[in-house]
Amino acid sequence: MPLEPVIGLEVHAQLKTRTKIFCGCSTVFGASPNTHVCPVCLGLPGALPVFNRRVAEFALRLALATGGRINRESRFARKNYFYPDLPKGYQISQYALPIAEGGGVEIDLDGGARRIGLIRIHMEEDAGKLVHDPHRPVSHVDLNRAGVPLIEIVSAPELRSPEEAGAYLRKLRSIVRYLDICDGNLEEGSFRCDANVSLRPVGSQTLGTRTELKNLNSFRFVERALHYEIERQREELAAGRAIVQETRLYDAEQNRTFSMRGKEEAHDYRYFPDPDLLPLAVDDAWLEAIAEALPELPDARRRRFVEQYALSPEEAERLTAGREVADYFEACLA
Ligand code: ADP
Ligand code: MG
Ligand code: ZN
Which whole number is the average pLDDT over 32-56? Predict the structure, then answer.
């Protein structure tokens, strides 16, 4: 039976706010360890979070740009788990009521454009970072990143190949950069992607069992890891074995994926609404102000370049993929 891949991506985009999501600490990258910390982001008992409204503004920019339904009242929730880079024992995220649901991102393929649906966009805080000592069996904890704002963008399982996944990621990165909400740097980790993939018989509407791939810090690795994993699943199924739902790590040097852990389920995290934070209300005036200030987005700009300057679609694509180049091109023409 011929099988087809089904891929859904979860992207974490670090937002370019000056300060963290629930405290006034700086988000600047590369400072000495544990210098941008305070009782809130250290998770000291009794310290209370205060929401940074710029984070919602940035999330709303993306929700508007991708045509999502904005929840006029959204909630923060605690996602409970233990890890040394998470001193509170829970991450503040959004669960039942994220800031936006639906919408989509248009990708351009040889056969024409296709819109990939989004399931949701939600806001959350980043965890700290573990620094493993290469010479001794010791790990250090740096909490400068704890509390840095992220948005998670979850695609529908509608991507059909590693190349489509790459096209989707490039387009999404271009959009967040146009919106000036994230610098989109995969290597530095400000734009991170987990890839979910499964196989199913061509024509089937039900989803197969998926694996989730992590540690994909370049576009090339995302595509390569997916290629590897699709082949691995194909071989498993051909040999009559079932796919185990699990999280797998990609090793770029060996170009392989390895089982890391059994896949956790949402109920394992014991999500519940964070009692320290009010529901976030979004009113018309705020939303209108954000909508009015949106820049022209890459798809619109590419189409305009083709019409206005008589460029080929390929030329327009190249010139509009990044906002700086497009701005420069138009400044030169002027
Ligand atoms: P989790 O955090 O448990 O991974 P999410 O709902 O946040 O769950 O993310 C699920 C992601 O996996 C989405 O991008 C979705 O499109 C994708 N996905 C879900 N089921 C499948 C499947 N069977 N095959 C491929 N992708 C899937
Ligand atoms: Mg996941
Ligand atoms: Zn702080």
Answer: 97
Contact (Cβ atoms closer than 8 angstroms) between residue 8 and residue 198: no
**Residue 274: which pLDDT band, with cuts at 50, 70 and 90?**
very high
Note the pLDDT of residue 111.
Answer: 77
Evaluated on CA atoms 90, 14, 215, 68, the torsion sign reads positive
Mutate to test the pocket of ligand 1, among 121, 164, 196, 199 (most ligand atoms within 8 A of CB): 196
pLDDT at residue 109, as a whole number: 85
Q: Is the CB of 244 under 6 A from ligand 1?
A: no
Closest of 326, 324, 328 to residue 301, by C-alpha: 326
Going by the DSSP 8-state scheme, the letter that residue 269 receives in this structure is: G
Residue nearest to atom 2 of ligand 1 (CA): 266
What distance in Å separates the CA atoms of residue 219 and residue 230, rounded to the nearest whole number? Answer: 17
With a cut of 90, say whether residue 330 has pLDDT above it: yes
CB 247 within 8 A of CB 263: yes
Q: Which atom of ligand 1 is nearest to the CA of 155?
A: 14
With a 6 Å cutoff on the Cβ, whether 233 touches ligand 1 is no
For residue 110, name the pLDDT band (cuts at 50, 70, 90). confident
**How sure is the predictor about 217, in pLDDT bands with cuts at 50, 70 and 90?**
confident
Cβ atoms of 150 and 14 within 8 Å: the answer is yes
Classify residue 267 by its DSSP letter.
G
Cβ–Cβ < 8 Å for 72, 101:
no
40 CA from centroid of ligand 3 (Å): 5
Give the whole-angstrom CA distance, residue 253 versus residue 227.
15
